[in-house]
Every structure is written in C-alpha cells, then in structure tokens.
Amino acid sequence: MSADEPEVRTTAGVLRGEGEPGLAAFRGIPFAQPPVGALRFGAPRAVRGWDGVRKAVAYGPPPPQASAFGMDALSQDTGDDWLTLNVWTPDHGSGAGLPVMVWLYGGAYTIGMASLPEYDGGRLAREGVVVVTLNYRVGIEGFGLIEGAPANRGLLDQVAALEWVRENIRAFGGDPDRVTVFGESAGAGSVAALLAMPRAAGLFRRAVAQSVPGTFFSAELAADFAGAFADELGLRPTVADLGSVAPSRLPAAGDAVGASMRRSLKRWGPVAHTSVPLAPVVDGDVLPVDPWQALADGAGRDVELVVGHTRDEYRLFMALGGMIGEVTEGQAAVALEVFAPGREDAYRAAFPDAGPEELYELVNSDWLFRMPSLLLAEAQVGAGGRAHFYELTWAAPGMGGGLGACHGLDVPLVFGNLSGGLPAILLGETPPPEAEELSAHFRSAWTGFASGEGPGWPAYDLERRLVQLFDTSPAVAAYPEEAAREVWRGHVFGALPLGG
C-alpha cells in the first residue's frame, strides 16, 4: 500500500483507491446489490463480499435517468450496479475520528448521479471532513408507487448507504457518531424525509436541507401517477408488468406523463403545473407522515438542523422556460389562484408595487421552496429542536446576470467546484472573486456545523427569527421575507391529495 494507492478494509472486503493532493479518494464502492432482475423494485439488499483487493477508482454507473438536461444519455449502457458511493478523506487512519458529511443530490426525483463534476467532494474534504456521495434510484425505479413493491425505494437506498457509513466509515477516518446528511432540492426533500423515517433514526446526528421542495405525495396521488406511467406502456402498475420493461426504457414513460400533466389540472392539482410527476410518498410505512408533521411531533428533536433557501428560487425555472420578461397578468393571476388559493389578495397587498412577473415568481418560489423550507425549520423549533436558518441573497453573475439568487446557486458554492459541472454556469465563464469568498464562507459554515461547532450564526427562534444572509458581505439579520411569511401564516404543508 502506498499514498498513491491507499487501501482500506470494509465489512465486504478490501478497497484500493487513489491518492489526490492531501486526500485519499475511493469511488464506485457498492453499498447494496444491483437492484435488477429478481431484486428490481425491491428494497436494497446487502452487498456481497469479495476476495482480494477491489479497485475503487472509477464512479459506479448512474441509475436510469429522465431526459432533462440530456441526463438520459449519461446512463445508457453503463451497467446496472447503480447503488454505489464515493468517499474522500483527508486522513484514512481508522482512529482519525473526523466528521462525516453524506451528500444527497437533487434533480426533481427524476435525475441525479453522484458522478457529476459539481459533486466532487475533494475540495470540501480538505476542510477536515470525510465526504460521502452516493447514487440512489430516481424516477419510476426509485419513487413510482408500484403494486407489489415497497414505496420510496430511493429513500430506502439512502438509508442503506447511511447504514454502510455507520458500519464502515471509521476505516476511512470518519466518526460514525458524527454524521451529517446534506442535500439540495430533491436532495433536501430527501433529508426532510429521512428526518421523518423510523428506519433512518440514529443514522445521522445533523442535517442540512438546502431548498426543501414542498412536493410530497399522498398514496392516492402517487398511485394515480403510477397508473398513468403504466398506461403509457400499455401495462399495469405492478412489479410483474413494469419489471418486463428494460430499465433504460422506463424513464421515457415518466417524461411523457410529465409533459402532459397540465391536461389533468383537476385530477392532479397544483403539482400538475410543475411537470414533475414523482416525489416521496407518504405511504404510512416507509414514510409514515410528512416531514412537517413529523418534526412538529418531535421526530427531529435529537438532530441539529440547518435549513435555508435562495432568495429568487424560481427565477432559474423561468429562464429555462423562456418566461423572463414574458409573464402576463393572466398568468400571474392563475399562479396565485393555483398555489395560494385564498391568499391572492394578501399577496397583492403585501407586494403592492409588484408587477405580474414578480408576483408569478414570488408565489412559485414560496410554494415550491421558500415556505416549505421555513416552515420545516419552524416545526423543528416549535417542537423543542434546534435549527439554524439561512438565505442566499448573492445574485448569480452567469447567464447574463438576470437570474438573481436562483435555485441551485448554492451547490457550487458549498462544494467549492466553481468551474465544473452544470451549476457552475450560474457563476459565469470566469467566476468573480466574491464567488470564491462566498464559497469559503459556505464551506466553513457547513463543515463547522458537521464538526459540532455550529455553522457560525445563532439558532433560529420564533421571536427574533435571526438568519444568516449569504452575500458579498455575509450578515445575520431578521428573516428578510417577512411579508411572504405573513401571507403564508397558518398554512400547513403535507401530502398532496389526489384531485388537488
């Protein structure tokens, strides 16, 4: 064994990784058996051991992907060993006892893979933590409610990876009693779900949820979507029928349903306006209750929490849809009616100078990310738990500079990967110096929190409502979206019903 070819012994066998400056990296480590064949649509099964030394220098193949951003092409003919993870450690001595940070990617529960360059954990690990990234099943494979299969298989994959961490991370220099899960968008929704899942209890001590989506499905809504997926294929939504479809073909059915959701507004309610037909399912078993109720009942009282959102969450989606500068008064009125029924006048009164575009952006941002994030923190605090809150207010300089502090901007800042991967586009061809400074602040806060020292600003409470504002000059201030918070006072997020 050498510094260039570090080795560790796990419960399944010996792994040989590769040395990087100041680090050892191990990629493509199986944490469960490939979920194909007889194991397809099942809960993850324990990985089989191996003899000798297994190379761990290449990422494992991603799970089947939807077509968004061309992700489907990245998962074609790459193999079926989807359930793998990756570890970066600055000290793989078994007695190092470093904090551990486990990343869950976003992607609307339909795309995502740990091998994307934006999720390289090297720079974050150099802050003195062990970083773990992992693949979990997305799309119908991971979140479709299929007869004869457990619900929320993607979440069960995450639990299996966390169990692997508990059993093995000490060999990589990590402390299994100091594990922090962190994720953005669908990854933050996954973090929220894990807080509510009995199967995940005790597997992590801290959690960071960046832009929590409010979309959790009732079993009835999820079953109706599953029927629509199966209809696209002329099949029933059962393990027997869908198991006959090649994994690479299944995401196309999800894409087709997503593209036609607006035809079923009465059937599917507000989520039909999102074109995202998959989400965690409040099934009463794997996910007994929604995260807001679970935290209000005290489920997260023993877990320290950081939650936050960006200021202009929905601006990115408007840009991708060609809507910036194009929103009509009619479109704004529909958005208010769909996402904030009964609060339309309150919105207009709270933001009297807002035109159609601003109102449209505000209500979409609030319903989808901002208020779900805030109310998750308030549920935690209200039950006697501890939460820290933040808002990213620094405007993205990339793509012409018109995106504001948009969704996803925090990802390159947290990882420090400012010039690689899709989110780096938000920073421009040459990231400005303030991006590097802000990234250093994010990394220090996240790793400080993971170490047990706190993120560097006061805990959120229901009186002062102090939050960290991430900008060129980071500051602690009262929550800046007070007008929106007042509009949403009394709203309860939970499982979305069939029929809206």
TrEMBL record:
Protein name: Carboxylic ester hydrolase
Domain Carboxylesterase type B: 5-455
UniProt organism field: Streptomyces vastus
Keyword terms of this UniProt record: Hydrolase
Root EC class: hydrolase
Lineage: Bacteria, Bacillati, Actinomycetota, Actinomycetes, Kitasatosporales
PANTHER family, per the entry: CARBOXYLESTERASE
InterPro entries in the record: AB_hydrolase_fold, CarbesteraseB, Carboxylesterase_B_AS, Cholinesterase, Type-B_Carboxylest/Lipase
This protein's record includes keyword RNA-binding: no
The family this protein is said to belong to: Belongs to the type-B carboxylesterase/lipase family.
Matches recorded under Pfam families: COesterase (PF00135)
Entry EC number(s): 3.1.1.-
Transmembrane segments: none
